[in-house]
Prior knowledge:
The structure holds two protein chains of two kinds. By secondary structure, chain A is α/β, with parallel strands linked by helices.
Amino acid sequence: MKAKFISITLLSAGIALAALNAEARTLIQNKGSDTLVNVAQAWAEQYREINPEVAVAVSGGGSGTGIAAMINGTVDIANSSRKMKKRELALARKRGRDPVEHVVGYDALAIYLHPNNPAKSLTIAQIADIYGRKSKIKKWTDLGLEVPGCKEQQIILVSRQNNSGTYAYFKKAVLGKKGKYRMGTLDMHGSKDVVELVEKTPCAIGYSGLAYATDHVKLACIAKDAESACVVPSVAAAGDGSYPIARPLYMYTNGEPKGEIKSYMDWIYGEQGQCIIVKKGYAPISDVSCK
Amino acid sequence: MSHNHAIDRRNLDWYIDKAVQVLVFIGGISAVVFIVGIFLFITKEGIGFLINTLDLQEFFGSPYWEPSDEDAPEYGILALMAGTASVTGLAMLIAIPFSLGSAIYVAEFATGKTREWLKILIELLAAIPSVVWGFIGLTIMNPLIIELFDVPVGLTVLNAGIILGLMAAPIMTSIAEDALKAVPDRYREAAEALGATRWQIIFKTVLPAAKNGLLGAVLLGVGRGFGETMAVLMATGHAVNIPGSVFDSVRALTATIAAELGETAVGSDHYQVLFTIGLFLFLITFLINLTADLIVRGIRNS
């Protein structure tokens, strides 16, 4: 009886040790922005081939999730499609963490429309009128448009949950610093959900990163104001700054990156890392020539 | 020797008896311990905000919910309450006739195998996980509502109300059936002796006699609807909105907590306001369940 017990204990200890050995490599926790999640995943996969000793665990959930995890101390790198707020920085410092910002690429925030929508171009002011709380524009006809298949021409506003960095960026860049969203926006969990809903809904308008574009949606041509010419969102236009609502994409580390995290960040900044971000539909931070 | 043995055995039995007593006692009071513990935990996380920062008038009176705004966050839950209330209300409109009907059928009409099968099926219906219901709302009901009613979006009060009604109905049926079964047979026999038809027996004798139990069933259904999260999160469209019709998208209190809590920094205002909502929900469901319990208890005593 006793011998059996001992042998079982030894066996399970052996299994635990073996498991420990298999996990004896560095694990980098990477979490946050839904805009960046596909890129982060591609980076992590590619990096495994370069350095098999390091495993990067990537999850999405939104910029707010990543930043909250950084403040709560549960991630090594937080992805975000918006800057950390002052209040968040203060809270992080109070918890003894020191978030350091790294810009890893640029994204064009695309305005998605149903292919039926005849809009040729939209100005930032018009979009603000559509989404803003105080505005009176509730129907496509208010903008002089007639959308086939949209029964009452009522605009269906597709937005993101309030933890999303894209939500925060859109609010600041389009609605203005004091701007607020109108009530009744459909708050989607992910960027992909926004595009999928717009695809199916003739009345809808939505916003998301350019990388989520499909063949079944229309990308609105965006003009800074009524006098300017409109620009179609593209990787090039996001990179050279001609697209009016292009934004940097961030990664935050706790303090200046060290050790394996530094090697990983350096690799992301290198040609291979930057080519991956281009391939995923975002603009790189510097000119790279990719195959 | 044999004498000693007998004493030993009695002692062992005595210890087992004591041990089981203690275990059962712990099991019995654990529910109380848990409920108090949960209440204290939620209060602890939300109380600082509730006392220091929260403007109750804004909290209950404003429809604007923008807790993540950097400069001027807004913490109004009026629209969220309207969302929860509209979905729960519609769900009850759907669930009450269904569950009462099936309870009456199972308790009064069905016999033998039919009755056994129905009871098993109803319990099976109650066992479907809520995320599956949510998925049905998202993938089946959504296009169906768009098609049938020619509306732009199918994730609406109607969608969530139907889903929630179907979810609440099995529990309501079970409890309502128990209430009907609890009506003594002599009531039915007396009515029959007076020449009442079957319908008259049920409508004029059994239902009035079981009315407390039925009310309890309905209230438990309301509590279920109020507290349901996943299905509502998936089927409502998640839009902060005061609905003007059943074709409007809304957002429920529970869904807001579920969607946002994981994404807030522990201890931040946003985190705390979500716990305040949790506290509010806890109090409401507690009140509903308590009322239901008192009503059901009332019939047992009388």
